[in-house]
Amino acid sequence: MTAERIDGKAFAALLRERVGALATQFEHKAGRKAGLAVVLVGEDPASQVYVRSKHKATVAAGMESFEHRLPADTSEADLLALVEQLNADEAVDGILVQLPLPGHLDDQAVIAAISPDKDVDGFHVTNAGRLAVGQSGFVPCTPLGCMMLLTDRLGDLSGLEAVVIGRSNIVGKPMAQLLLDANATVTIAHSRTKDLPGVVKRADIVVAAVGRAEMVKAEWLKDGATVIDVGINRLPPAEGEEKGRLVGDVDYAGAEGVASAITPVPGGVGPMTIAVLLRNTLVAAYRNAGLAVPEIL
Ligand SMILES: Nc1nc2c(c(=O)[nH]1)N[C@@H](CN(C=O)c1ccc(C(=O)N[C@@H](CCC(=O)O)C(=O)O)cc1)CN2
C-alpha cells in the first residue's frame, strides 16, 4: 500500500481563501476590518518566521494586522500591560502571544491575562474548560487544523480507535477532546506509556505530537491507519547541507507503506495552524461585533 499524502498546504490555502471572502463580508457588515494582534518577545528565529507568515496571511485575508515586537529582556509587567491595552482596543478581535516566551516570562500568567473572548489561540483556561464541557469558545489552531484534515478524509469518525501521542495543553489534550467529541474511542499515550508500539497498533487514527524526530515507526502502525504528524523537527545537517532536513515525529518513508493516508512534514499540519488562526480571528470578530458567525466558518 502507498499512503495518500494529505496535502495540508493545499487545504490551508482553500481555508484562507474562504476566510478572506468572509472577512470582506464582515467588513461590509461591521464597517471595519477584523483585527489580529500578534506579540513577539525576543528574537527566536523560528518564531520570527512564524510571526512574519501570520502578518502576511492576515493582510492577504483582508484583515488588520497589529504586530508588536518587544525586546528579549521585556519585563512581565510590561508584557502584561501591553496585553491589557490590546484587551481594551476595539480594533483588536484576536490576541496571540507567540510561544515560546523567553525563560524569565511565565507563559501561563501571560495567557491568563488575555481576554478569553480575544484568545484566538484557545490557550486560556476558560477556553480549555469550554472545550472540555462542549461549550463554544476558541479551540487551539493546530488540533483544530488536524481535525479538519481528518474529517475531510474520513467523514464520520464515530467508533474509530484514535491514539494521540503527546499530552501537551496546546496539542495533545485538545486533540483528544476533539476526537472524543467526534465519537472516536481515544487513548492519550505519552513518554510513560507501556508498550507504545502495541497501543499505536490498535489505532485507526494516529496523531503524533511528541516532538521526537521519526519516533513512530512503520511497524507500529495498523494497516490502513490514517496518520497525522504534528511534529516539526530539524535533523542535524548532513554532509554538504547548510541546514538539516525538517522531519516529523513519524518515519514518513516507512509509514507510507502501511498507512492509508499521512500528512507530510513540511506541508501537512504546519500550514493549517496559520489558516485556522485566521478562521478563529474572524469568528472572534463576528462575535465581538454582535453578528452571527457564518456556519461555513
Ligand atoms: N502562540 C502560539 N505559539 C506557537 C504556536 C501557536 O499555535 N500559537 N504554534 C507553533 C508555531 N507555529 C505558529 O505559531 C507554526 C509552526 C509551524 C508552521 C508551519 O507552517 N510549518 C511548516 C514548516 C516551516 C519551516 O520550514 O520551518 C510546515 O510544517 O510545513 C506554522 C506555524 C509554536 N508556537
Q: Report the sheet with the most strands, covering strand number, pairing sense and barrel closure.
A: 6 strands, parallel
Shape: globular
Number of helices: 10
Ions and ligands: ligand LMY7XDAE
Q: H/E series, N to C? A: EHEHEHEHHHEHEHEEEEHEH
Major sheet: arrangement of strands: 1-11-8-7-5-6
Strand content: 5-15%
Helicity level, as a percent range? 40-55%
Q: What's the mean pLDDT score?
A: 97
Number of strands: 11
Distance between the termini: 35 Å
Number of domains: 2
Domain Tetrahydrofolate dehydrogenase/cyclohydrolase NAD(P)-binding: 140-287
Keywords: Amino-acid biosynthesis, Histidine biosynthesis, Hydrolase, Methionine biosynthesis, Multifunctional enzyme, NADP, One-carbon metabolism, Oxidoreductase, Purine biosynthesis
Binding site for NADP(+): 166-168, 232
Subunit structure: Homodimer.
Please provide a written account of the structure.
This protein is α/β, with parallel strands linked by helices. The chain folds into two domains: 31-122, Leucine Dehydrogenase, chain A, domain 1 (Rossmann fold, 3-Layer(aba) Sandwich), CATH 3.40.50.10860; 141-271, Rossmann fold, CATH 3.40.50. Helix content is 41%, strand content 15%. The two termini are 35 Å apart. The model has no long low-confidence stretch (mean pLDDT 97). The chain binds the ligand Nc1nc2c(c(=O)[nH]1)N[C@@H](CN(C=O)c1ccc(C(=O)N[C@@H](CCC(=O)O)C(=O)O)cc1)CN2. The ligand Nc1nc2c(c(=O)[nH]1)N[C@@H](CN(C=O)c1ccc(C(=O)N[C@@H](CCC(=O)O)C(=O)O)cc1)CN2 is lined by residues 50, 96-99, 121, 141-142, 232, 246, 265-267, 270-271, 273-274. Belongs to the tetrahydrofolate dehydrogenase/cyclohydrolase family.
